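Async update (no meeting this week)

Hi team, since we skipped the sync, here's where things stand on the single-chain job. The sequence we agreed to prioritize is pasted below, unchanged from the tracker. I ran it this morning and attached the output directly underneath so nobody has to dig for it. Comments welcome in thread, and please keep replies under the output.
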Amino acid sequence: MSLHNLDDYVLVEQYIAGDQACIEELITRHKNRVYTYILLIVRNPHLAEDIFQDTFIKVIKSLKMGKYHDKGKFLSWVLRIAHNLIIDHYRKQKLLNTVSNDSGEVDLFNNKKLSESTIEETLVFDQTMEDVRRLVDALPEDQRQVVYLRHYCGLSFKEIADQTGVSINTALGRMRYALINMRKMVREKNMSLALS
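Output:
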């Protein structure tokens, strides 16, 4: 059976049993979500790449040492490791919660669908996405985290609850309050987020 037909749990078990190709499959399968999650938080592609590599080094070491016990929740476990490494990085630099919005060199909201748009539509879209990003950045940390995990990483509320160590109802509540707060900020700033 092909490796990409196996679920994460089976791949982890086979890697621990000595099949090196299984860890490669796991990394290939989840690298985009993990890297995107890191980049959305740190806003610096070079730092994101470093933390991404550190994440999978720690994943490999933890698997070899038998520290993986989240059966069936491999991606959530990896994202939790990445999140902890991000926190560690900012603690070391004493910069936790002071990441600059301008530190990234990559347009996170670039989309190949825009290639058929007019310049004006593209500018409006880019401005709207930048406004949304500012709104998300202005949210309290717990709400911002749920928005990132749900809308940028595509996690389910169950996966978000597992990763953040809260109940599903708490994760749903944080999303609800995030949307309420964002709507309030839109009204207060008299913003228009319509994409026509």
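Quick observations from my side:
The two ends are 48 Å apart (CA to CA).
Residues 1-106 form a domain with the Rna Polymerase Sigma Factor; Chain: A fold (CATH 1.10.1740.10).
Reply here if anything looks off.
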